[in-house]
Design goal:
Layout: H1 2-27, H2 34-49, H3 53-58, H4 61-68, H5 73-89, H6 93-98, H7 101-118, H8 124-135
């Protein structure tokens, strides 16, 4: 049982580190790399969470929360942060047509609100992410 718990903790840490690096990479993309960076990010979330940006956009709020309810809180927060960074980079007409910034921002806010309802800890970082997302709508 302890080995299983250790394995799960290692996997959570591994994925958290990878998501953190992905967020950092997205935030430093220059205009020539934005589309490929978003595609790489989309591929990652498809692989790890069986979810794409197009699915995030098209799911209802309830469906979205239900799809992610098994993820650890830290991953939900990182997903909201990732959405925030992606939204900041969507600034060309092609990307705006491909990805609905408002809907991605709404889903990020939904994630933050959901985390806040369940968490016993107030997080300034979550509030910061939420403010960024609210200003992108």
């Amino acid at each position: 049982m302890e080995q299983e718990t250790d394995y799960i903790l290692r996997e959570v840490k591994r994925l958290t580190t990878f998501i953190t690096n992905l967020i950092s990479n997205v935030s430093t993309l220059n205009s020539d790399e934005i589309e490929s960076g978003i595609k790489e990010t989309d591929d990652f979330i498809k692989k790890e969470w069986n979810l794409s940006f197009k699915e995030i956009i098209s799911l209802t709020e309830i469906e979205f929360i239900n799809r992610l309810k098994e993820l650890p809180e830290v991953h939900l927060e990182k997903l909201a942060e990732l959405l925030s960074e992606i939204i900041k980079k969507i600034n060309t007409p092609e990307l705006k047509n491909k990805y609905n910034k408002n809907e991605l921002a709404n889903k990020g806010i939904l994630l933050i609100n959901n985390i806040n309802e369940k968490s016993k800890v107030y997080s300034m970082k979550r509030m910061e992410i939420k403010n960024v997302l609210q200003h992108r709508i």
